[in-house]
Amino acid sequence: MGEPSGIGPEVALAAFAHFGGKIGAHPLKLVGDAKLFAPVQHALIPTNSKVAAVPGKADPANAAAVTEAIEIAVKACLNGEAAALVTAPIHKSVLNAGGFGFPGHTEFLAHLTGARRAVMMLASDTLKVVPLTIHMPVADVPKAINKQSVFETGEIILTALRRDFGILNPRLAVAGLNPHAGEDGVLGGEDEAVIAPAIAALKARGFAVRGPLSADTLFHEEARKTYDAALCMYHDQALIPIKTLSFWDGVNVTLGLPIVRTSPDHGTALDIAGQGKADARSMIAAIRMAADMADARSR
After folding, report:
1. Per-residue confidence (pLDDT) for residue 98, from 0 to 100
2. Hey, what long-range contacts does 218-222 have (CB within 8 A, 24 or more apart)?
3. Do 141 and 75 share a structural domain?
4. 33, 19 contact by CB (below 8 A)
């Protein structure tokens, strides 16, 4: 259900109705507070923790129910009772005020599943991108980039493209950190000293990887035909192009987990919650992609 005072429950119900309660061979189940999902009690897995949700007013008192819903769904996936998990947006600061203790969904899911490293991908039919660093100040990005993190993230992306998206020979483009990928060290040394060696190590493993590439020419139509996913060095370098190209059908996918997990590529939208204005297209896309990924893993 995500944040109960946001648009998560609304778009979950709308997507459920859109699919008629089933996608392919997969019946849909909603996990959350019984009152929020009253119209679909037949397809509900309720939380024991209750919520008192006022649209637009997130309350730390609801944190226990939000995290319990995630835990229930993850357990169902790990036990083989569910094929995939689709999460509605959470309100991180409100959860943290309620004692959550994790930066966001990705880190919490890695903890619950025992994953060594979880990677956030934003995906659509037009573009798939992964930010190497996520929610940190831009000033901290250069020192957060190292050869091992670039190598491990690239390996997780390429493995997921084959396993979860059915791409037999996946191609990865790696963006440089600096303008023009450092321009031979003139505009910064990280591209040559850190990123390039990681790419060489991936190539030595037999992967199809190119880079570091100048980010300003990486996302136009012709360039996108040359790769299946792009690894970017920081949040906006990855998210600006995909939100420009696929604002309503972009999906947040967590790679590196033993389960399939997707999410809409938007936040809680407290400002429009409960007003009938929420757009369910990203949730619909997230459910469709989760089902496709689950089917790909089962082949």
Report:
1. 87
2. 218/173, 218/175, 219/127, 219/245
3. no
4. no
- Whether 36 and 143 share a structural domain: no
Tell me which residue has tokens 């309350």. Answer: 59
Average pLDDT over residues 266-289: 95
Average pLDDT over residues 129-153: 95
Task: Scan for tokens 């995500």, then name that residue.
Answer: 2
Range of weakest confidence among 7-21, 73-87, 96-110, 143-157: 96-110
Structural domains in the chain (count):
2
